[in-house]
Amino acid sequence: MVKVSIGIPVYNVAEYLRECLDSIMNQTFKDFEVILVDDGSTDASFSICQEYMAKDNRFKLIHQRNKGLAGARNTCLKYMKGAYVTWVDSDDVVDDNYLERLLEVQEKTGADIVKCVKKHLRANNVFYITSYNKLYETEEQMKEVSKVDLLLDALDNRLMVLEFWGTLIPRQLYKGIVLSQGKIYEDQGNRFKLYLRSKKNVLLLEQLYSYRIRQGSIMDARREQTSLSKKLHTLRTYMFNWDKLMYYVDLSNYKVDEMREIYMKRLDELSVAANLNEEDVKFIVK
């Protein structure tokens, strides 16, 4: 069995895709497979994926009609054979020792979920983030994080670790999990399913993952949302994901009262965060 399956959903990223895939090929740890799912790209992304599949048999390629990020990840999971799963967004880049370090930390700590932190990549410039040790209140390079704090992160982003990318998780932990499709903020609405199954979670405070900030990306579009209708759409999505989180918390009977208290507090803060008046609030909660 291959050690690590790397899932890479691909959609119209021809400009950045080779840099991403080269960073995978340059890994110091070599026992991996790459599951590329082309999610109905209309640019040259599919052809680029074919190039890498032709020159490295660790790369597998599946083409499908567009199903969105979560739909592409679900397809990745169907074809993965590795003992562990990690995700890389197709416009991002990972350091050469990305897999090596995640595996070393997993072996040392026995954690179910290991997540590294990110640096930012904009144009040809790399921006390192200097506040991680202060945020996590530690001078160590590794920090164990409680399950409840990770679940609450879905409500208030206190730890900034919602994303699937940058993690190493046993494939067995994904068994039976289907990622919800058709919503933005897919990570917020799905990641908690894995946390509820986990017993030990460790953050690696090494910036092994380069997260690209680019004009026209989904996240860039979200930053530019200014109209009331767009704000309301975003808030409805948050509420949908939070309601789903609380449903799973209830089913798991995991710290229900503590989670519900934070949940209600965040709902109260929604109108303030979005600068909504009373009529706007009535509109969003219909």
From TrEMBL:
Signal peptide limits: none
GO MF assignments: hexosyltransferase activity
Residues covered by the Glycosyltransferase 2-like domain: 5-138
Parts of the chain that traverse the membrane: none
Keywords recorded for this protein, A-Z: Plasmid, Transferase
SUPFAM superfamilies the UniProt entry points to: Nucleotide-diphospho-sugar transferases
Matching Pfam families: Glycos_transf_2
KW Transferase (keyword) present: yes
InterPro entries, sorted: Glyco_trans_2-like, Nucleotide-diphossugar_trans
Top-level taxon of origin: Bacteria
Name listed for the protein in its UniProt record: Glycosyltransferase
